[in-house]
Write a structure and sequence with these properties.
Helix content: 25-40%
Mean pLDDT: 92
Structural class: alpha+beta
Number of strands: 8
Strand content: 15-25%
Oligomer: single chain
Strand order of the largest sheet: 1-2-3-5-4
Radius of gyration: 19 Å
Length: 241
């Protein structure tokens, strides 16, 4: 049967000389793996540029429940993040976020609020011209709430440590050892309560930004044990160090 949906490209792997398999998060059907044939073919008119991380496409594909990989029939760009791919720093963030979401978004079912959050975040990121060095951290802290493990409030100044295991800010280091130090916890508390518009007001050195990022990834890995190694992480950390 044919399915139609808007989808965000997360990640791709080469399938053949003229084909790829893309991991896509769709609005109506959640996470899907889709085979794209005939890249660089004049007949199909398909080009790999459309299937880069964070491109948003209108998709029509052949769906069969017994298959783990579906087959693309046709697609068109619903939103092309042109500014992201004109900027090496932005495109590095896009590659990281696409790979990260490919690891954590597993459900093959609709989650309209989550899809809308991702789509609106991509458009904001594409259009912002400066002050976006913290975007990937702000995006991940927002993503946690849609995946069901948003931390409790960190506004109480007496709660100085972020307990990663229980997702709360506490006054003393917890005995289990899965917590962030005081300064990293303070920064995370600000991110968990800050909008994209204000993320640039959180001053971070390169080293601290990487420490905060490592901590939020660790937080995800505790609550989503299947989180894979993110290969693009080291490149991202180098770019923003």
């Amino acid at each position: 049967m044919l399915q139609k949906s808007k989808g965000v490209i997360l990640h791709q792997i080469k399938y053949s000389d003229s084909g790829i398999i893309v991991q896509v998060y769709t609005r109506e059907y959640g996470r899907q793996a889709i085979l794209v044939k005939g890249l660089r073919s004049k007949k199909t008119g398909r080009h790999n540029a459309l299937f880069q991380p964070l491109f948003i496409l209108d998709l029509v594909y052949y769906y069969k429940e017994s298959r783990s990989v579906q087959v693309l029939k046709e697609c068109s760009a619903a939103y092309s993040p042109s500014d992201i791919y004109a900027d090496i720093r932005k495109s590095t963030i896009a590659l990281f976020l696409g790979e990260f979401m490919s690891s954590v978004l597993k459900e093959e079912s609709s989650h309209f609020e989550l899809f809308d959050y991702i789509e609106n975040s991509i458009k904001f990121f594409d259009n912002i011209k400066q002050g976006y060095s913290n975007f990937h951290i702000a995006f991940l802290t927002g993503l946690a709430s849609y995946l069901g493990f948003e931390p409790g409030p960190g506004s109480d100044p007496g709660n100085r440590y972020f307990d990663l295991l229980n997702g709360i800010f506490v006054p003393l280091p917890p005995p289990h050892g899965d917590y962030a130090d005081r300064y990293t916890s303070e920064v995370l508390a600000r991110f968990f309560s800050t909008s994209f518009d204000l993320m640039g007001t959180i001053p971070l050195t390169g080293n601290l930004r990487n420490e905060v990022l490592e901590t939020i990834i660790r937080y995800f890995s505790i609550h989503l044990p299947g989180l894979k190694k993110i290969n693009s992480l080291e490149v991202l950390k180098e770019i923003f160090s």
